[in-house]
Give the backbone structure.
Amino acid sequence: KHKFWETQPVGQYKDLGDSSLPEGPIEPASPLEEVKQEPYNLPSLYEWSTCDIGSEATCTEVYNLLTNNYVEDDENMFRFNYSKEFLRWSLHPPGYFKNWHIGVRVKATKKLVAFITGVPARIRVRDEIVNMAEINFLCVHKKLRSKRLAPVMIKEVTRRVHLENIWQAAYTAGVVLPTPIATCQYWHRSLNPKKLIDVGFSRLGARMTMSRTIKLYKLPELTITPGFRKMELRDVPAVTRLLREYLSQFVVAPDFNENEVEHLLLPTENVIDSFVVESPESHDITDFCSFYTLPSSILGNPNYSTLKAAYSYYNISTRTPLLQLMNDALIVAKQNDYDVFNALDVMHNESFLKDLKFGPGDGQLHYYLYNYRLRQALKPSELGLVLL
Ligand code: NHW
Ligand code: EN5
């Protein structure tokens, strides 16, 4: 059934629940000299092209490919529309490799027709910190689908990751592949219910009118928690400490240092928003919340072209109840004109989703590790990892 994935070092269905198999790498690291030195062969009309996302022209090409060909919902009503600033930010974390940003072009015209990326990350699995690649933005132009290009691209990114002496990867997908380490549910909190209903993102509930729906989702104009403010550069050490302590309780979570927190969590306009609670008495940073900006194109609607969505990222409460902290996150998202606030049921998110009027979406997100076996699938609440 999975001609490609059957050949890869990933958990296979036949091994599910076999508790005699050990946890950890499925195959050992090889000596670097044994890693294939030449790129994999593409069909003869195409060529590999390392993409310098720092170049405005290349970033525009990638942006256009993804805007027109990346992930859609199951009814093809919405398509992710990552911004150029977002692509630059997410592909340039500390220690990134340009060579892991891989394009495929038509030889004759140089048109970019496919893309896949990796970025390095240290991810802890139970008590082991593993150097990994986070794989994202796999995309093949709609006209070139089902020609088995994706397996070649996955093998090529794997080869380039191996050349850096890294042997594991983490990735998420909306589709089921061999074999998820966890399956998470998307939840959505309407901020602009009228627009969401108009564009078909949500529906008027049974026995609900538009005005009752608008009232149901109304939020205060201002945040409630004293000391709630935007994160600043000076907060990086405190936020790093909070985050490291918080993430230590999950089975799979990133191992962030201060450099990474600065890059990934310091607010960047229209990319990432982060807030801290600074105790008015002690001036300690006691709580933290963050969300990233990922609009979706609305396909074929005469009145609206984009849906502005916030995606819950990392949230930590030590003093402020998580419910109140996330309510403040909803308030700032509303102040900044987001239409919807999305979250997965990872970490402690279950504890606020229903109370804050999130509803389950029609999409799921499956988490995967490459060349690392877990004995059993995890509950979403055992995951401390959010990929972009
Ligand atoms: S998930 C988003 C993926 N992108 C999209 O959904 C965009 C729209 N779709 C497309 O562009 C986030 C195409 O449909 C794609 C497939 C390109 C998805 N992951 O070329 P063929 C990520 O970016 C398998 C993995 O004919 P296609 C994460 C499929 O099961 N595999 O299909 C990416 C089949 O294999 P099988 C996927 O439709 C993680 C084969 O591809 C997949 O023209 C990548 C068919 O290929 C997916 N999302 O192109 C893995 N979708 O065995 C990283 C389909 O079943 C692994 N397939 O026959 C780690 C690497 C690094 C290791 C380092 C040590
Ligand atoms: C790699 N980083 O299906 C990620 N989204 O629920 C790649 N549904 O937005 C993999 N179909 O339920 C991504 N509205 C996999 C996800 C792909 C995108 C996707 C889903 C997630 C989604 C919306 C719109 C559905 C439109 C028709 C949805 C219901 C909202 C409603 C609000 C009020 C309370 C109940 C829920």
